[in-house]
Amino acid sequence: MRLRTLGALAVEGSGLKREKVLLLLAYLCLEGPQPRRRLADVFWPEAANPMNSLAQHLVHLRGLPGSLHEEGSRVEAALPCDAAQMRAAARSGQWQEAVSLYGGPFLESLTIPLGGDLEEWVYETREALALEMRGTLLTLGGQTAARGNTEGAGALAARALLLPGAPPPDETELPRLYHLLNLSAHPLAAQVERDARTLGVPLDSPSARIVAAAPFVGRAAELGQLAALSPGSFGWVSGPGGMGKTALLEALNRAGGWQVLSGRPEAQAAQPYATLAPLLPHPVRSAAEALSALNTPRLKVAIDDWDSVDEASREVLTLVARQAQRQEFGAVIVVTSRRHPPFEVRAHLTLGLLNPEDVPQPGLHALTDGHPTLVGAALRGQPLELGQGAKVRALPPELRDTFLLLALQDHPDLRATRAALNLHADAFARILSALTVEGLTGETGRVYAAAAIRHYLSAIYVQSQLLHLRLARALPPEAAWPHYTAARDLWEEADETRIAAVAAARADALIRRGHPGEARALLDGLPAWPELAVPHAWALLGAGQYAEALRRLDALTPPHADAPAALAARATALVRMGRHAEATALAGRVIGTGAEGAQAASVLAHAARIRESWDEARRYSRIAADLWQLNGDEEQHLSELGFVALARVRLGVAPAEAFDALLERAKGLPSVRGTMLVNYAQMLGQHDQWEQAEAALLEAVPELKTAGDVMGLASLFINLGVSLHLRGHLKSAADYYKQALNLLKGTGSIRTLGFALSNLSEIEGDLSAFEDVMEMLERAGQNELVASIRRNAQLVARLPPSPLHS
Fold first, then answer.
1. CA 20 to 30 Å from 5, out of 157, 468, 665, 669?
2. Model pTM?
3. Residues forming CATH 3.40.50 domain(s) in the chain
4. How would DSSP label each residue in 458-510?
5. In 192-262, at which residue ranges do the beta strands (DSSP E only) sit?
6. What is the fold of 226-350?
7. How far apart are CA 268 and CA 274, in angstroms?
8. Which residues, 6 or more positions from 381, have their beta carbon under 8 angstroms from its beta carbon?
């Protein structure tokens, strides 16, 4: 239950109608615990027995469960009351809730006669509550205006002016009402202007109408905190440049009731108290005199940029802050600065980036990083780089170069950036701090909306390339390649060795992720430096271009041609072309326990698999696995163990026994596990366990997708197609082959592409296309694959057609 007193008088959920009883309850709700004698004298001053009258009315209230608390001679209301709730909400800054509770003037529906004291209390309370509601509406109107919604601000001001139960506005309310009504060109502005003229209250002239700026985004909480500052408070708003400190004060100005002043450094020498001059009498002879002029409880002053405030004004404001701490000052003062306050303040707000929920326009927060200056630029339809451009151009060269180098990196490497600039640590730290204070970067060096800055830099072609080159020379190899690519026209001879190493590392990473075609394209575009021959060959091998890989390696001359890495890569190319005898001889020349030794052992295992010498294949795969483990390459180690398992199955071990433990170990390595599942499925197919084989292949799909292994996925779909193809399920097989072909676009994997095309053309009965594919594979040196495809084609031809999937 709740007592309603605003616009009506009743207890919600109760049938109690006696007005005097309800009035007694309202008095207790708003005035707090009362002695019985006082209640009797106020409510029944002329009764023969006031205490008896009170007792009779309390009987009715006791019939409302939980409405009263009585202790000795004192009585207290225990029921919620809308007026008390409204007053509490307004005083705690919950203005929307307060407005929702105001249903009309206090106790307006009373019809019973009242004694003098009680009648005076009703009217005074009605007026006080209405005035509090008018203040709440004006505060909401100010906040609405601060956000650029002048129409909404005017509507709230009109509601405040015409509020039922409120007296005519006084000299403190008229300027605020006029300000908000005038903003929206509301018709009631003229009425307020006439009332103000009658009372002699000065207003802004109609011609000096304040125009709302672009919509003020975010900062609702900060606006609320500043609006709620009580008289005598000293507030400080700090934050890097561009975080919206000035915009926040402009919003307060639009809200009305605040005087906003700016620092005036040009006047510091000529005139003491230049910043505070609009508020002070002239001439001011001392800081104490200026302090006295500011000590006005109704005064609200906001001062923008502490560093630009003249020395005499700073002295006064420092005294204000000290007195405010001791609660000995009347005005509300708010100061903005890029730095923290140099003295204690009552309230300190720190502005940073806007939150995503503060920027409702889709995609705008991601585009701007929530940087208020950049959000404002975007809302005004300006290019983002203009939001920072003038500030960047005004920076000293060292700061500007640092900023631009940081902007070229999504996740700045501060050590490399410092090295690129050839700066000492202390100088670099000072530059970073200056950029952060300017609001151009975060504390980690990350540039806000760096993509927009990079777009701007791309238009300054040579300067941009030079910055990229300086950065590429300083970054670690795994991060340097994109910057070397962007600076290609400025490469120097001294860069070649490092560029080759960086390109090789990049290509290796692409191959490991299942993108050998991208690795090949990257290295195809570089000069034929001997240092890149082996990485280039591995990219070509990964893309299935075995003959091309062999030609790249054959072009090497000693000593590069005789290096173990080149021998291992050449042996791999030979074995994949089916020339296993040559591959075996070449792999035998590779000695040692490094990565080349592991690759050579893998070649010997592959050659043994071609010859179907399964014990030998198992032994060499085991050696290769051990060597990869010795070199700390867990992925290659487990990958080679997958071939050990394949050989074991060929030697008679059940597929599950050979693969189960390995598949468990490979969890967390999606590329390895996905490939292993494909091999497992092949062995299940060899044992006619087709359903389990298909299940293993389908389990491999998410693993290979997670790894981004395009070649692995293509191989998986081809295996699914072969599984169905061999059993005569031709339509489903063709669908899988087509999925594989879609994945293979742009990979450059001739071997895998040829395998899928040949199988698809066989299903579709296109003998001419089938033979064209065979010729393409033979030209690429895929003789072993051609022979295998022709054997499978003869096998399928002998199978009866399946009624399923066809």
1. 157
2. 0.56
3. 226-350
4. HTSHHHHHHHHHHHHHHS-HHHHHHHHHHTGGG--GGGHHHHHHHHHHHHHHH
5. 234-238, 259-262
6. Rossmann fold (3.40.50)
7. 6
8. none
